[in-house]
Write a structure and sequence with these properties.
single chain, mainly alpha, 69 residues, elongated
Length: 69
C-alpha cells in the first residue's frame, strides 16, 4: 500500500508567481534598454546639465511669501 501525501503549494499559484516574475523581469529589461537608448542618443537630460543661474536676487511681489527669491 502506497500512501502519497502532497505537501506544498498549489500549481496554479506557482504558475501565477512565475508569470508575474517574468513580467517584472521583462519590464526591468525594457526600462534599462530605454534608459541606455536615451543616454546613447543624447535625449536624456540631467538636472545638473542646466546652465547656472545668476546669483542676483529678484524682488518678489507684495503677495509673495518670500521678499526675495
Amino acid at each position: 500500500m502506497n500512501i502519497v501525501l502532497q505537501v506544498g503549494i498549489d500549481i496554479p499559484f506557482v504558475e501565477l508567481v512565475t508569470l508575474a516574475g517574468t513580467l517584472i523581469l521583462v519590464l526591468i529589461v525594457l526600462a534599462a534598454g530605454g534608459f541606455a537608448y536615451r543616454a546613447y542618443t543624447g535625449t536624456l537630460t540631467w538636472p545638473t546639465d542646466t546652465p547656472e543661474e545668476s546669483d542676483d536676487l529678484n524682488r518678489g511681489a507684495d503677495e509673495d511669501e518670500w521678499k526675495y527669491y
